[in-house]
Specification:
The complex is a heterodimer of chains A (149) and B (363).
Chain A: H1 14-18, H2 28-45, E1 49-52, H3 60-70, E2 76-80, E3 84-89, E4 95-101, E5 107-114, H4 125-148
Antiparallel strand pairs in A: 1-5, 2-3, 3-4, 4-5
Chain B: H1 5-11, H2 16-29, H3 35-46, E1 55-60, H4 66-74, H5 79-84, E2 88-92, H6 100-113, E3 118-123, E4 126-127, E5 136-137, E6 140-141, H7 142-151, E7 153-159, H8 160-165, H9 167-170, E8 178-179, H10 181-184, E9 190-193, H11 200-213, H12 226-229, H13 240-245, H14 255-258, H15 277-280, H16 320-325, H17 327-338, H18 346-352
Parallel strand pairs in B: 1-2, 1-3, 3-7, 7-9
Antiparallel strand pairs in B: 4-8, 5-6
Helix pairs in contact in B: 2-3, 4-11
Classes of the chains: A alpha+beta (149), B alpha/beta (363).
The complex binds iron/sulfur cluster (SF4) (2 copies).
Chain lengths: 149, 363
């Protein structure tokens, strides 16, 4: 049974509608300082870092606030591996918002990565080698084909 | 199975990126810094899967099979499942096809063939009353079976709160004289994986650690792997900001409850409970008790059944019998509870909390 088949109704109470103040904890703006610090480190030493958003006391509204503040940059990549992962650069180049979903579509982990390119996007030399083998195979097929025609 | 783990996984259709993603998530669950995810991925990818396919023997004692239910939920199509395949589960009553004498033979054959090397997993507590007659398998008391199997084990995993601390069977008045594994076995390394039931991925995570590093993870004072039990539910609870602001739900259907405020006054034991629910969640990451609107019961701590009541705030006196006699005191304590709405007062909550071993408030 899909989860939405369970008839749960969210009742928005008056305080909920007063606005985001009801659920914002004030912990998100502080994070901007940390992100700035990590960005400085990236520029100075080239060292990448990450913030585990699940390890911090952030409400869903805090996360929305942060997401909105950092915005959506030019690059967004999707990885299909045991559930979808999205890696999108924010309007601050080098600051990436990384969300891993599991097979059920639930968020399994969520990070802010401060790096030129997220590790997950780079191809590993071992995998590149396998790709090369495949290319060689394609090429040899090509010459086989030309012989037969 | 040969070659590094990553090759084994690749043969099963798991890509390197899927594996890196798994490690990043595992690191987050283990409360490790994000960079640890990459280090783990490298170590685990290179680890030889072949040499270390240890024999695992799983003995069920005084238990409800909830722990087995939980573990099997983790692992049909998922990556943890594949890592789980890297062990040889030689005896598990619920999962094995063999029964009766056949099963007993499998058990003894595995114990003999892997003497000194197998990993023994135990779920359930061990009753000592009536010479152990309360729980027997194949005519042998749990006590005898545990001692026999422990002798040749490299290490023992006490799976679930019953094996780790006695659990429900040990709850007052403990009619069967139930005790934990560590109450009986003193000469083997014992890893406690408490929880009622434990989170599936914690179990597979400990196994992954064992397989990749060939060693047991670091344990805390209660014998639990620090990686998963290093922080309290409260430390990573998404309702924590409301606790810090002193915003509490007072009933399960009031304004505060609807706004998702802190459940401390409704009896949440998150502040004294070390477990990974707040990050790992349950049912494949769908939700977890506090997210569903119910406080933490403290199920991964010793004697949580006798901690004074699931719906009583931690700062209230714990002994339910005394509660009746001292109704006036209870009223006073309820008032005090409200002022505990900040971290600095943790120790005040501790002294107000009478007998329970749960009151491990200092982090
Ligand atoms: S007391 Fe419970 S609900 Fe409140 S912040 Fe702590 S863990 Fe979360
Ligand atoms: S939230 Fe608390 S009681 Fe519930 S499963 Fe987790 S540790 Fe156990």
């Amino acid at each position: 049974m899909p989860l939405d088949a369970i008839p749960v109704v969210v009742v928005h109470s008056a305080t909920n509608q007063i606005g985001d103040n009801a659920v914002l904890s004030g912990n998100a703006p502080v994070l901007l300082h940390e992100i700035a610090e990590l960005t400085r480190k990236l520029l100075d030493s080239g060292e990448s870092s990450a913030i585990d958003l699940r390890a911090l006391p952030l409400t869903p509204a805090d996360l929305d606030w942060l997401r909105e503040a950092l915005g959506q940059g030019q690059v967004a990549a999707t990885l299909e591996a045991e559930g979808e992962s999205t890696l999108s650069e924010t309007i601050c180049p080098g600051v990436w918002w990384v969300t891993h979903h599991n097979e059920n579509g639930a968020v399994a982990s969520e990070f802010i990565e401060v790096t030129f390119v997220p590790e997950l996007l780079k191809a590993h030399p071992d995998d590149v080698r396998i790709g090369l083998e495949h290319l060689d195979l394609l090429i040899s097929d090509l010459s086989n084909d030309s012989v037969s025609t | 199975m040969q070659g590094p783990l990553i090759d084994t996984l690749a043969r099963q259709g798991v890509t390197r990126r899927a594996f890196m993603k798994y490690c990043a998530t595992l690191a987050s669950m283990m409360a490790l810094p994000p960079a640890a995810g990459r280090a783990m991925a490298e170590a685990m990818a290179a680890a030889p899967a072949a040499a270390k396919r240890p024999s695992v023997i799983w003995l069920p004692f005084q238990e409800c099979t909830g722990c087995t239910e939980s573990i099997t939920r983790s692992h049909s199509p998922s990556l943890e499942g594949l890592i789980f395949d890297a062990i040889s589960l030689d005896y598990q009553e619920t999962l094995m096809a063999a029964a009766g004498h056949q099963a007993e033979e499998a058990l003894h054959a595995a114990m003999k063939a892997n003497e000194g090397k197998y990993l023994l997993i135990v779920d359930g507590s061990i009753p000592l009353g009536l010479d152990g007659a309360y729980s027997c398998i194949a005519g042998k008391s749990n006590l005898e079976a545990l001692k026999e199997a422990a002798k040749g084990a490299a290490a023992i995993v006490a799976m679930g709160s019953c094996a780790a601390y006695g659990g429900i069977p040990k709850a007052n008045p403990n009619p069967t004289g139930a005790v934990s594994v560590s109450d009986i076995i003193k000469d083997k390394p014992i890893i406690n994986i408490p929880g009622c039931p434990p989170i599936p991925v914690v179990m597979t995570g400990v196994l992954a650690h064992f397989l990749t590093f060939g060693s047991l993870p670091e344990l805390d004072g209660k014998g639990r792997p620090k990686a998963f039990y290093g922080e309290t539910i409260h430390d990573r609870c998404y309702r924590r900001p409301f606790y810090d602001q002193g915003k509490f739900a007072k009933t399960f259907d009031d304004e505060g409850a609807r706004n998702g405020w802190c459940l401390f006054e409704l009896g949440c034991k998150g502040p004294v409970t070390y477990n990974a629910c707040a990050t790992v969640k349950w049912n494949g990451g769908t939700s977890w008790p506090v997210e569903s609107g119910h406080g933490c019961l403290g199920c991964s701590e010793p004697d949580f059944w006798d901690a004074g009541g699931f719906y009583k705030a931690l700062s209230m006196p714990a002994d339910p019998l005394k509660m009746v006699a001292n109704a006036a005191v209870v009223g006073a304590a309820a008032g005090v509870a409200i002022s505990f709405a900040n971290r600095g007062k943790k120790s005040a909550a501790k002294s107000a909390h009478e007998t329970t071993t749960l009151a491990d408030l200092e982090k």
